[in-house]
Every structure is written in structure tokens, then in C-alpha cells.
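Retry 2 of 3 after timeout on previous attempt. Resubmitting C-alpha cells to design endpoint.
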């Protein structure tokens, strides 16, 4: 399977969301003024950490050596640590070590046991605030890729969990939601038309990089599809559906940015 190391090598600014700049700006402007020490958990190559005001001490954690090497080269003032999230892994920090933990576009990739452990560690290590961002209105039925060898299907960018606004209010036990921001715009594809287009050809879906299939271990080709009439027809209908939504501005927010505050700060 393609690793994040390989993706950061191909594109050091890799981001699955077209509304990245608005989301990052909202994260940065949401940092409370009394914060002096931040942990960026799942930092990637530092697109958020590098924009945090220089008077704040920042530590960036990621499991990609490539991403961390970019930070070390471009932003030497940011501390880095290679660390992999796991269902039994404990962050190498004492309780309440950071005023704020930022975890952006990470949790949607984690299987259930790893997700629970990560939330537990965020709750333990953050002393005052947490900022979480995730995709909003992410539809598994329309954001699909298919292995052109064995037919197995996956989410386009390997998301395994999806978030509604209500989920955040009961996610971190020692923190309460202070503010939920909605950023960006998402014009959803038609799940039915995508399914029909996949069914009528070997089209892999909107895949932006080659990856290895989890089932047959074959290489899924970027944008591979046979030019069958059925596939072209249903892809064209989906294109019209999307343009209709864009023209009439039928959209939903692309991302949630959620600011949490510790219960003891009331």
C-alpha cells in the first residue's frame, strides 16, 4: 500500500481537501491568546505548524520521516518527533504537557481501536485546549475508488470514519466544545451515478495517486478506466449533476474546525 512517506515525496503539500487554506486560517485564528505551547499531532510537512505565531513553542509529531525532514529543513524553530499512532501507544509526554493540541485531518483515517487510544491521549496530554478538524459531509458512497484488478473498493483517500457536528460534543471527556466552525464548500457527486459508472467499466474512481490494493496487493492505477459507453455516459451525467449543484450553489461545508476548552476553565 502507498505510504504517507511516498505521498509526501510526490507532493510535499499533499492535502486531500481543495479548501485547505480556509481551514488552516480558521485553525490558526482559533488559537486562544493564552496558549504558549502547542503539539501538532499528525503534522505532515508543517503546513499548520509553520503558520503558528513564532512566540508559541511548537512540537510537530508525525510518522512520516519525509514530512518531518521537510519541517527540519524549512522550519528549524519547530521541534519534531517521529511517532506512530496505535491502539496501545502512549504519547511520550506527561499529563497536561501542552496548552493546546491540534489534530487536523487525522482522526478520519484511524481504525476504531487506534481512534479511541488517540482521543484518550489527547485528553491526557492537553491541559487547556484542543483543536480538531475533519472533513464534513464526507460520503462513502460517492467518494469511492475500485481496484481495477480484483474489484475491491475503498474510500478515495482511505477515510474509515465520518463526523457529524453532534459527534464532537461527546468525543473528549475532559473538554467541552467551545465553538464549531464550518469552512469551505463541498459539491457532492451523485452516489448512484458514481456506482453506475464504476459498475460499467474498470474505472478506478477519482484517484490522485497510484496505490496498492489491500486485498490482492496489485497496483491500482491512477484514473484508470476503460472507455466503455456505459461508464462515459454515467460519468457525464454525474458531471452534469455536479455542475447543476455548483451553478445553483447547492453545497455543504467541506470541513469542521472544532475548538475545545477544558472543563476546569469555566
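Retry 2 succeeded. Sequence:
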Amino acid at each position: 500500500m502507498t505510504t504517507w512517506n511516498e505521498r509526501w515525496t510526490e507532493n510535499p503539500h499533499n492535502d486531500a481537501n481543495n479548501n485547505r487554506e480556509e481551514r488552516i486560517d480558521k485553525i490558526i485564528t482559533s488559537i486562544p491568546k493564552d496558549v504558549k505551547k502547542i503539539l501538532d499531532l499528525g503534522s505532515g510537512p508543517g503546513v499548520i505548524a509553520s503558520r503558528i505565531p513564532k512566540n508559541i513553542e511548537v512540537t510537530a509529531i508525525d510518522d512520516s520521516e519525509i514530512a518531518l525532514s521537510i519541517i527540519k529543513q524549512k522550519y528549524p524553530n519547530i521541534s519534531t518527533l517521529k511517532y506512530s499512532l496505535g491502539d496501545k501507544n502512549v504519547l511520550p509526554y506527561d499529563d497536561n504537557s501542552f496548552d493546546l493540541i491540534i489534530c487536523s485531518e487525522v482522526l478520519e483515517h484511524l481504525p476504531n481501536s487506534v481512534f479511541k487510544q488517540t482521543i484518550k491521549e489527547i485528553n491526557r496530554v492537553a491541559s487547556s485546549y484542543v483543536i480538531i478538524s475533519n472533513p464534513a459531509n464526507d460520503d462513502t458512497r460517492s467518494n469511492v475508488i475500485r481496484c481495477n484488478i480484483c474489484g475491491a473498493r475503498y474510500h478515495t483517500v482511505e477515510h474509515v470514519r465520518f463526523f457529524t457536528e453532534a459527534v464532537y460534543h461527546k468525543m473528549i471527556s475532559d473538554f467541552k466544545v467551545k465553538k464549531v466552525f464550518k469552512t469551505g464548500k463541498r459539491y457532492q457527486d451523485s452516489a448512484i451515478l458514481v456506482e453506475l459508472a464504476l459498475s460499467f467499466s474498470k474505472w478506478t474512481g477519482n484517484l490522485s495517486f497510484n496505490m496498492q490494493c489491500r486485498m490482492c496487493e496489485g497496483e491500482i492505477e491512477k484514473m484508470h478506466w476503460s472507455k466503455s459507453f456505459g461508464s462515459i455516459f454515467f460519468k457525464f451525467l454525474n458531471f452534469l449533476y455536479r455542475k447543476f449543484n455548483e451553478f445553483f450553489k447547492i453545497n455543504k461545508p467541506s470541513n469542521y474546525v472544532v475548538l475545545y476548552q477544558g472543563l476546569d476553565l469555566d
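Attempt log closed. The first strand starts at residue 37 and ends at 41.
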